[in-house]
Q: What sequence folds into this?
C-alpha cells in the first residue's frame, strides 16, 4: 500500500473514478492528508479528512513525510492568497493558497509567516491566520455565509474558487466549528427534523429540496421566515415565503422536502 499523500496544489479535484473523463465529486485543499486506499495507473483512491472517498490524479499529490503532523500549523484565513519565495510581494510566487488550507509554520517576520509546502519547498505568506472555533455561534455563522455572497457555483466545489450547494454548507459550518458530511443527502441525516412551516424555522437550520425521486438534491441555510442563503448559480439569498417578493422563488417552494436543526 502506498504512503498517505498530501495535496500539493491549492485545490485539486476528486473524481468518482480514476480518470479525468469521470465525474468530479469534491475538492481537496493544499496540505490536506489523503489516506490511500488503492493505487491504479498513477491514480489514487483516497479518503479525505472529512471521510469522503474518491480518486485523485498522482501529479496533484506527494508522499506525506513521517514528521508532517509534528509541526505547528498555520491555518490560512483569507479566501485566496499567494505564497512567495521571500516575505515580499515583489518576489516570485510559488503557489496560491485558499481558505481552509493548513501548512507547517516555520518562522514569523513582520506580518509574514514562513510555511513548509508538502513537496518540501519553503515560502512566505502574509499572515492572516484563521481562528479555530470549538463552538458554533449563530451570528458568526451567518456572517461567514454572507461573506461568500456572489461566489460562483461550481459542481463538486467546496472552496472560495467555487461552491456547490453542499460544499458551501459544509464550508460555512466547518469554519464555525461544526463538521458536516460532504454531500447534501448525507447532511440530511444530521440533526432533528423541525416543523415544515417556515415561520418556525430558526436561523442556521438546514433546508432540503428534492428534484429527482426521493434523493435530496439541494441544500440551503435558513435565515428565518422562509429566507435562506445557498449556492445556486452563485451564493445568494432566496425565499419560499411569497410575501418576500424580491427574493421569492416558486420553484423552491415546490421542491421543498424538509428542514433539519443541527444547532
A:
Amino acid at each position: 500500500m502506498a504512503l498517505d499523500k498530501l495535496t500539493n496544489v491549492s485545490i485539486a479535484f476528486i473524481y468518482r473514478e480514476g480518470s479525468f473523463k469521470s465525474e468530479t465529486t469534491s475538492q481537496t485543499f493544499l496540505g490536506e492528508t489523503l489516506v490511500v486506499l488503492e493505487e491504479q495507473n498513477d491514480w489514487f483512491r483516497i479518503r479525505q479528512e472529512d471521510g469522503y472517498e474518491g480518486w485523485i490524479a498522482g501529479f496533484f499529490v506527494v508522499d506525506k513525510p513521517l514528521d508532517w503532523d509534528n509541526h505547528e500549523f498555520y491555518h490560512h484565513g483569507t479566501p485566496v492568497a499567494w505564497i512567495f519565495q521571500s516575505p515580499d510581494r515583489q518576489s516570485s510566487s510559488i503557489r496560491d493558497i485558499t481558505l481552509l488550507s493548513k501548512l507547517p509554520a516555520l518562522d514569523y517576520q513582520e506580518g509574514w509567516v514562513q510555511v513548509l509546502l508538502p513537496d518540501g519547498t519553503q515560502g512566505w505568506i502574509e499572515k492572516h491566520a484563521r481562528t479555530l472555533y470549538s463552538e458554533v455561534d449563530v451570528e458568526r455563522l451567518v456572517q461567514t455565509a454572507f461573506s461568500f455572497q456572489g461566489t460562483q457555483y461550481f459542481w463538486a466545489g467546496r472552496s472560495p474558487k467555487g461552491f456547490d450547494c453542499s460544499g458551501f454548507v459544509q464550508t460555512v459550518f466547518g469554519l464555525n466549528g461544526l463538521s458536516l458530511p460532504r454531500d447534501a443527502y448525507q447532511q440530511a441525516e444530521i440533526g432533528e427534523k423541525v416543523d415544515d412551516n417556515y415561520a418556525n424555522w430558526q436561523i442556521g437550520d438546514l433546508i432540503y429540496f428534492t428534484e429527482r425521486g426521493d434523493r435530496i438534491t439541494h441544500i440551503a441555510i435558513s435565515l428565518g421566515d422562509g429566507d435562506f442563503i445557498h449556492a445556486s448559480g452563485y451564493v445568494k439569498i432566496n425565499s419560499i415565503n411569497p410575501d418576500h417578493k424580491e427574493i421569492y422563488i416558486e420553484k423552491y417552494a415546490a421542491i421543498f422536502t424538509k428542514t433539519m436543526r443541527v444547532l
Q: What stands out?
A: The domain at 5-68 is CATH 2.30.30.40 (SH3 type barrels.).
